[in-house]
Amino acid sequence: AEQQSTLVSQQREILEQQRKMHEQMDLIKIQHGMLFDTVKQMSFQSLHEDIQHYFEAQLQGLQNQARNHLQKSYSVHKVEVDAKVIDVGESLLDCGLCESDEFCNFQKTPSQCEKCTLCPAGFFQMSECSANADRICQDRDECIESPNICGERIKCLNTPDDPALI
Fold first, then answer.
1. Are 90 and 111 in contact, with CB atoms under 8 Å apart?
2. 146: which DSSP letter?
3. Sequence-distant (≥ 6) Cβ neighbours of residue 78 within 8 angstroms
4. Contact present, 164 and 146 (Cβ < 8 Å)
């Protein structure tokens, strides 16, 4: 009877220890769930940032391609206009003698001397003014030249004078 009592007592202790272990396992399951949710959230946030950076880089590349295409189109158009002017066969002397800061504008009838364009703020000079062609100015893209000009996490949009915040 005494041994039986000792065995029952030991079994109760074992059952109590098992109950405590189950409680601890439940706590571990809850902590594991919370940790798993945090990892999922961090992974999603990191993935979201990676995707955002990828699309921003792609957008920047497309903007650069469009800008280069427009610049080439403008240059080709200007060359074609100059070629048409030359084809007309008008003499450079039709304007008479232009001043050093003037060019002969063949697109006007009759041709006449005009002041060379001065590149405004936010633009840079691509070609000099000559006797038969005006100076060519190109918009300066401050968003590319100074990427942090608008601050962090703000889209920068180049405009003809200063960059604009979006």
1. yes
2. S
3. 136
4. no
The residues that bridge with 109 in the sheet, in sequence order, are none
Residue among 94, 89, 92 at smallest CA distance from 131: 92
- Angle (CA) 116-121-123 rounded to 5° is 70
> Which residues, 6 or more positions from 156, have their beta carbon under 8 angstroms from its beta carbon?
142, 143, 147, 149, 150, 163, 164, 165, 166
Instruction: Say which residue the tokens 């960059």 belong to.
Output: 163
CA distances from 5 to 14, 16, 19, 116 (A): 14, 16, 21, 114
What does each of the 166 residues of the chain score in pLDDT, given as a tens digit?
899 999 999 999 999 999 999 999 999 999 998 988 888 888 777 778 888 888 888 888 888 877 776 766 555 555 555 555 554 444 445 677 888 899 888 888 888 899 998 888 888 888 888 888 888 888 888 888 777 777 777 778 777 665 554 4
Alpha-carbon distance 74 to 122, whole Å?
18
